[in-house]
Amino acid sequence: MIKVKKLGAIVPALTLAAGLAACSGGNGNGKEASPGADGNNAGATTTASASASQAAGAADTSKFVKISYVILGDKPKNGQFDAALAEINKLMKQKINAELEWKWVEWADWQTKYNLLLASGDPVDLITIGTDWLDTWGNAQRGAFMNLDDLLPKYAPQTWESIPQEDWAESKYKGKIVLIPENAYTQWVNHGFFYRGDWAKEAGITEPVKDWDGIEKYLQYIKDNKKNVIPWDATAGVSTFGGWVNSYTQELELPISTGWLPVFTTKSVDDPYTVVSPIFDEDTMLNYATKMKSWADKGFWREDVLNYKGDTRTLLKGGLTGLDQHHTQTFGTLRVDMDREQPGSELQMYPFARTNGNLLELSITHGGTSLGAHSKNPERALMAYDLIRNDEQIYRLLNYGIEGVQYEIKDGKRVLPAGYDPKKNEFYSDFWGGRNDKLEIPSSTVWDQLPTTLYAEYDKIKHPYPYGQFVFDKTPVDAELTAISQVTGEMGPSIAFGKAGDPAKAVEAFKSKLKAAGYDKVKAELQKQLDAYKQQMQG
Question: Where would one find the signal peptide in this protein (predicted)?
């Protein structure tokens, strides 16, 4: 039986490739809070410290050690994260005689760098994982992570006790726990387009956009009426094919990576075990390619889009473009930014799932933390993690920065201090490995109408995530999956931005190359393993 998750809903990870910084919203989670969390956790620091002391009593902490934590994101350059980390390390030294080292895998070619780091055999301690976007199960198969079954109860007791056994069950590879899920944090990271409500009204769009045709009408209005504005100043790193699939089919993505865009899906929520493909089935890919070619011909983005390296979100804030694309968490922060920087813009979001209600809840292993297989200090690393996740003082420093510099608390909300300068004082840690609603403080930088608008809409249509315990063993088809990912990276961007010539010919050439790369073999192996998973879940 499929277990209903406690977390927010998500468009299938089809759309995660659409924004490489899938969880960051550009800079990270420092400005994104979970609406509804009250920040009330009296005694949390004391409890966490007691847990740390308990673990310390069972471990030799006499030797000072440094603990690395690998995260995804571009390293902040204004010194604010370093200042907060210094304060964190004073507490780490006091509690467990250790120091944290934050190691950034930056977004440029992040997938390659992340996997190479794990394959290198370097002694990584803690590391961010994500089963639906960071190839966690593949890395587990390659022996990248340490078995945590015996370590967790002893060295991370508060975390161990707070996570239900059914959630630990989804954190296992071959019956052994290899990750700590981010199961206690509410987030909605389903993707869609962001558009200006004021310009939409000028275009005669008075109701929320419900499909891609509505977005096209909006973009055409900008093209015709807004001088010196590029309707969608996109970059080739943005893949929207997953969003199209989400809008115009009932297909679900599987937690396997095929590179730049999704190649394999399953039929629907009613049949989540039959493998299909949005590229080979019906005309999904052709319709998408045709639409994107028409958008290119209409001039909705730059002619040199495939080589363009601009920052779409910054341009949106500057009034120089009218469209952006990412997930709901990002929208919640961006709406507040736009209200400040483009007063009256009334930023709106068209979630791809709105078109036909194809919305899945988020896997609890979308984010989380593993311990590197070659960690030299696994006991102290888990003790550090237990503090990060449960100690109120450390949690606030890591997620929000220094009180009085990055934030103040007024009426139970985080607000920006007087004199706050975004360039000097901006803070983010890109910590997506164990956020905790109990320690979250709502933020004035997140749109307070999210719960009554988009969140309420999602609650009406969401479906349980069906692949929490599915671990795809890609050993039999590893070479073919690599070849398929190379094909999607080579041909996907040109099709997605209408630069591949005739859409029908481009799609056929794409299919042909995927076939040559081993599409049929991978599909057969995937179906075989899904059949076994179906028996497991229904047994």
Answer: 1-21
Q: What is the SS3 assignment for 94? A: helix
Strand partners, 194: 324, 349
From the list 514, 524, 508, 525, the residue with the least C-alpha distance to 482 is: 514
Does the pLDDT value for residue 309 go beyond 70?
yes
Strand, coil or helix: 62: coil
Give tens-digit pLDDT for 437-478: 999 999 988 999 999 999 999 999 999 999 988 889 889 999
Give dist(CA 44, CA 411) in Å, integer: 20
For residue 348, pLDDT over 60 is answered with yes
The amino acid present at 268, given as its one-letter code, is: S
Other CB atoms within a 10 A radius of the CB of residue 240 amount to 26
Determine contact, residues 403/424, Cβ cutoff 8 Å.
no
Q: Is the pLDDT of residue 291 over 90?
A: yes
Q: Per-residue DSSP letters for 20-51?
A: SSTTTTTT-STT---TT-----TTHHHHHHHH
Pairing relationship of beta strands 98-105 and 9-10 according to DSSP bridges: unpaired
**Which structure tokens are listed for 446?**
């997140």
pLDDT category of residue 39 using cuts at 50, 70 and 90? very low
CB distance 58 to 366 below 8 Å: no
Cβ neighbours of residue 285 under 8 Å, at least 6 residues apart?
Answer: 241, 278, 279, 507, 510
Kindly state the tokens that stand for 502: 């005739």
3-state DSSP assignment of residue 206: coil
Lowest mean pLDDT among 57-71, 223-237, 338-352, 383-397: 57-71
